[in-house]
Amino acid sequence: MRYSRGPLSVAEEVEGRENDEKRLLRHLMRGYERDVRPVKNASTPVVIQLSITLTQIFDMDEKNQVLTSIVWLDQEWKDELLTWDPNDFGGLKIMRMPCERIWLPDIVLYNNADDYTRGYMNSKAMVSYDGNVFWPPPTKFRSTCPVDVTYFPFDDQTCVMKLGSWTYDGFQVDVTNRTSEVDLTNYVPNGEWELLEARLIRNVVFYSCCPEPFPDLTVTLKIRRKILYYMVNVVLPCVMMSVLTLLVFCLPPESGEKIALGITVLLAFSVFMLAIAEKMPETSESIPLIGIYLTAVMAITSISVVMTVIVLNCHYKGPTAKQVPRWMRRYVITSSPLPPVTLTRSTSVISISSYLMLVEAEMKWISGWRDT
After folding, report:
1. Which of 164, 162, 106 is nearest to 135 (CA)?
2. Which of 9, 58, 272, 338 has the highest Cβ tally under 10 A?
3. Alpha helices in 318-351 (DSSP H)
4. Strand pairing of 193-206 and 132-135?
5. How far apart are CA 261 and CA 268, in angstroms?
6. 102 vs 33, 37, 80, 94, 162, CA distance in Å?
């Protein structure tokens, strides 16, 4: 009989505890108004103690300048209308209650990049017998974050999330922070961004519309971009293509790939420019230095292609080319730091003997020009 009584006694205890919870819930909800601040004296503010637990930096959208983060918004306050004597309800000291049945502070993200229709997860609130309410809803914040891409991809960003009551002033709902640090115990590192600093600061703001103070909590996140991906996929290819631009001038004129190489490098830089432009925000406040570098190299590559066309044109015309103008010959002879040799007609590959003959003829021409 002792063994048969065990399960029955446990079942009776569980049933009795369920009855205590039902009685307690009916007792607490009797005459309770969730739309009214839970204070007995209307002049007493409800003190909201907030703490932030950052679990992940989900995404950083540089183009739209939006930071997506996953946080646990721990909120604790005292509800003077939700108190009871544990001895009257089977020793119950904590009650899990649906959050939609009790008063909740209207804490919102001021710099929200989305609308305010989503709200928080409808998790249950933990209510203790002395009226303390603890509600830790997990949520995904999409906050605006001005991005400075000047030093992309070697950039640091500072993002701010501003939290506070939307309708209550500081005399009705006083928002405070438990600690100045953000809890990173459950933080999952991001593959693209490194978290440098996370802090929580309380501010009190006075607006021109109202004389009452409006307290808020500002979460500041400092993050740094991890550069390994961009070094391998952006920076090193740009450096190698810049070297290829110089190699265009090293190819002999007989090679038919001088122009092809220059145009190929130019198109490759154009592709990199488009890839970077798609990632950067459409703003004129800051321009990435790598974009300026790519533009400059594209300009140099374009000039090298034009110069290659001129060289090939002179090379393949041969003796049919027109005579060099007199003013250009005088400029080259008197101003150029190069040896005073001016080819009056473009020629093909010149041997050493031909070069010496041209130098001798040029010297004779110079002496005759000076005598005149």
Report:
1. 106
2. 272
3. 326-335
4. unpaired
5. 11
6. 8, 10, 12, 15, 25
Residue 263, helix vs strand vs coil: helix
| Band of pLDDT at residue 58, cut at 50, 70 and 90 | very high
Q: How far is CA 239 from the centre of its chain?
A: 25
Two structure tokens written together for 110: 């001021």
**Which parts of the chain fold into alpha helices (H)?**
2-29, 228-230, 236-247, 258-279, 289-317, 326-335, 352-371
The answer to whether the beta carbons of residues 56 and 67 sit under 8 Å apart is: no
CA distances from 298 to 112, 233, 266, 270, 301 (A): 40, 18, 6, 8, 5
Closest by CA position to 36, among listed 75, 94, 82, 74: 82
What are 15-39's pLDDT values in tens digits?
555 688 889 999 999 988 998 999 9
The stretch 332-337 carries a mean pLDDT of 58
Contacts with 316 (C-beta within 8 Å, 6 or more apart), sequence order:
none
CA distance 276 to 291: 8
Q: pLDDT, tens digit, for every residue of 253-304?
A: 666 677 788 888 888 888 888 888 887 777 777 788 888 888 888 888 888 8
Domain ranges within the chain, ordered by starting residue: 9-226, 229-347
Q: For residues 133 and 126, what is the distance between their CA atoms, to the nearest angstrom?
A: 6
Amino acid at the residue 103: W
Structure tokens at 320: 């049919």
- Which CATH number is 9-226 given? 2.70.170.10
CATH of the domain spanning 229-347, picked from 1.10.540, 1.25.40, 1.10.1740, 1.20.58 = 1.20.58
Phi and psi for 114 in degrees, rounded to 5? -105, 180
Main-chain dihedrals φ then ψ at residue 108, nearest 5 degrees: -130, 165
Tokens standing for 36? Answer: 């009214």
Cβ(111)–Cβ(143) below 8 Å:
yes
Structure-model confidence comparison of residues 159 and 118, the more confident one: 159
Cα separation, 296 vs 318, whole angstroms: 34
Per the structure block, which two tokens stand in for 312?
């090939």
Instruction: Give me 365's structure tokens.
Output: 């021409």
